[in-house]
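User
Please review the sequence:
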Amino acid sequence: MTLSNGTDVLALDRAWELAGASVTPRERFRLALDRRPPVGRVPHFELVYFLTMESFGKVHPSHRYYAQWFQMTETERQRHREDMADVYVATAERFGHDAILLHPNPESLEETLRLVETVRTRSGDRYFLLLPGDATFKIPGGTGMQEFSYRLVDDPDGLLAEATARVDRALVRGAALAKQGLLDGFVLTSDYCLNTGPFLSPSMFGEFVSPFLARLIAGYRKMGFYTIKHTDGNILPIVDQLVEANPHALHSLDPQAGVDIADIKRRYGDRLCLVGNVNCGLMQTGTEEEVVESARYALRNGRTGGGYIFSTSNCIFTGMPLERYELILRVLHEEGIYR
């Protein structure tokens, strides 16, 4: 990718690798998660980059509907796997991502293992590979919200048993991926909060979610995986519980919900890595000056002392102007350098 000021992102990253004793994007990402002394550019990734049609003329892998998957020959399936892998690697190369969050499609364990293997084969050890791996209760969808709310009162024991079973299944899947030996970690993507606060009260969150989140993270850590806990919204009433669950990093520190990265860095920066928090709302509807200032604020307050990964406060979603994403990348590559 060449930025509007003529900077070639991939060439710049290669130069920093040489200057930093061959620190690859994967190693740079790991340094941030471990809160170790940083080298070169502040690491960067996005949960999802959905503008693949605009950038590469290809539908994003998670938006593909394989109605005839089970009728395909193995040759056809392999072509799909390879094409999905190409999209992920091309995105990382073009936009300077240090990590790739894969979205398996189909989502079976067998296809997940194949996708991880295909991407790792195509990219070597260059990128930090992640998968979604949450098993905790999230804000229920509209059709299930009423039933879930009733169960909190009428069937708490049943919900707790279900929470246990969900974590058990996730750890079995994690063990299979650990045995494969190609994956670096998981992003735990269950959303807990609205802009006004968590869906569950802090006490209910402490009963139905945080013990299971802590057990899930401990299980992944024991297998050698890194974990990044993602949730949008106002996390402030439950942030202590999220930190106590001991993830390696916390994403997205949502500024649209009043979460200030400077405050979170000051309170918890010695305990976990922070990921975020360029304001996605401003990237969609704000001025260029507001977008630049949001990117600078995130960099300025997140990067101090390391333990920081630059990203938006959600993802590069469908409909976001590509120029706005390129704008924050320009800020990153001009100002996000550890000297």
